[in-house]
Amino acid sequence: MRRRRSIAVVGGAVGGLAAATEFRRLGDDVTLYERQRYDEKRVNCGEAMTAASGIPLEKTAENGFLNPVPSFRVAVRGDETVIGSGTFPARDAYITDRNLVERRWAAWLADRGVDVRANHGVSKAEFRRLGGEYDLLVDATGQPSLTSKVRAATDEYAGRMVALNADVTGDFSALFPHSRIVFEGYLGYEWLFPKTETRANVGVGWHEGDVPDDYFAAFRAACERNDWPKPDRSRTNVAVIPRGPSLDPARIYRPENNVVRVGDAAGIANRFTGKGISQAIHSASLLAECVAAGELDEYPDRLHRGMRAEYLLSSLVTTVLDEGRTDLLADLLSAASGIDIEAIDRKPYRALIRLLSHPSLAGRLLSISAVRTSVWRALRDDWEYDRTN
Ligand SMILES: Cc1cc2nc3c(=O)[nH]c(=O)nc-3n(C[C@H](O)[C@H](O)[C@H](O)COP(=O)(O)OP(=O)(O)OC[C@H]3O[C@@H](n4cnc5c(N)ncnc54)[C@H](O)[C@@H]3O)c2cc1C
Fold first, then answer.
1. Model confidence over 164-202: pLDDT tens digits?
2. Record's PANTHER family (predicted)?
């Protein structure tokens, strides 16, 4: 019989909770350290959870899964009017009270023998010490990760996106239970994710270069354009999201001694949309699979190899918007309409194949030199796209 491994997971949000779940299932001894208390944890997120079946809780409102959202309706707005749209079904997605989901998930783990230590922020010195005490130390502390702080290398998470979001109340019965995402002429997007017919998470994200001077005024203006309730300043969260590390094989994070990163700590949230919950869950399950097979060293390459198509698709869309081609984005959306929202990230080759089945659209895309450059770089594993060149 194999010896039970001792696993420390630092960071108890979705990535850490998923890692603790996977290692507990493998029969290992797991200790989970979370800086915040679960009953007053502040989460800064749109709270749309895709790949929800990876979460070992019953999908009830009591567990925080408020709206089993059937689809995301995505629109592109030109100067004044909507110039294109697509509907993306969501077979395994919920608009959640994420705080509640994480609290229930941590309790579920504690019931199954995981040593959950909430309200325990791990310092850099303790992190180094834990590395010597456990067989494996999983860094799930988000961006910038504790590993990068210990190594004084937080600049690994270069680039940024700024996102604002807030819970609002209003009458969402015309949209509920569906969700809305709107692209305009800037690099980023706006969302309205209804939790119930009268409560929703609204938000907006801008990529570097398109970030307005007055975030809050721009957020309210975006809500007004969409006819959504205007958020309260006191209820608005502001997040600055580093872009995360590159897929460049020379910069992929290797397990350092026995320390390995999952979720945002591994820099794997989608570069264009900022969506990262299913990516975090996926990375945790891939890590456990590699460890169980005695192939920890394989984990970073397998993780990043699996993400190449997602990166290619997101850099393509980013380039199209960056070029101000909302007309092309509108056509891209209608071409991709009908593909499951999660498949856009996890099986992006479906969207790429769909694109190839519209040769004139593919031709129009490739007639833009920035798009050709972006595809060429992607094919050469050169992911350092930079708006200035
Ligand atoms: C505004 C906004 C909206 C978003 N909306 C969505 C969305 O709708 N859907 C989606 O899929 N993704 C969304 N994302 C992305 C998503 O939130 C992240 O990708 C996801 O939270 C990553 O999970 P994680 O567990 O890796 O890291 P995090 O969620 O960052 O969690 C890290 C955890 O580690 C803990 N921690 C940190 N340091 C320490 C320490 N020293 N000791 C102990 N614990 C520590 C923190 O308290 C935290 O609980 C959004 C992001 C933003 C900013």
1. 999 999 999 999 999 999 999 888 899 999 999 999 999
2. DEHYDROGENASE (FLAVOPROTEIN)-LIKE PROTEIN, GERANYLGERANYL DIPHOSPHATE REDUCTASE
- Beta carbon of 45 within 6 Å of any ligand 1 atom: yes
- Among protein residues, the one with the nearest Cα to ligand 1's atom 6 is 46
Measured CA distances, 136 to 4, 7, 106, 127, 131 (Å) = 12, 5, 20, 12, 7
* Atom number of ligand 1 nearest to Cα 263: 26
The CA distance from 256 to 274, in Å, is: 26
Residue with more model confidence, 156 or 67: 67
Alpha-carbon distances of 381 from 24, 202, 270, rounded to whole Å: 35, 35, 17
ipTM above 0.90, yes or no: yes
Q: Is residue 239 in contact with ligand 1, taking CB distance under 6 Å?
A: yes
Per-residue pLDDT of 313-348, as tens digits, reads 888 888 898 898 999 999 999 999 999 998 888 888
Atom of ligand 1 nearest to the CA of 275: 12
Q: Sort 257 into a burial class: Cβ within 10 Å, 0-12 / 13-18 / 19+.
A: exposed
Q: In 10 A of CB 149, how many CB atoms?
A: 15
Question: What's the CA gap between 267 and 241, in Å, rounded?
Answer: 10
The Å distance, Cα 142 to ligand 1 centre, comes to 6
DSSP output for 281-338: HHHHHHHHHHHHTT-GGGHHHHHHHTTHHHHHHHHHHHHHHHTT-HHHHHHHHHHHTT
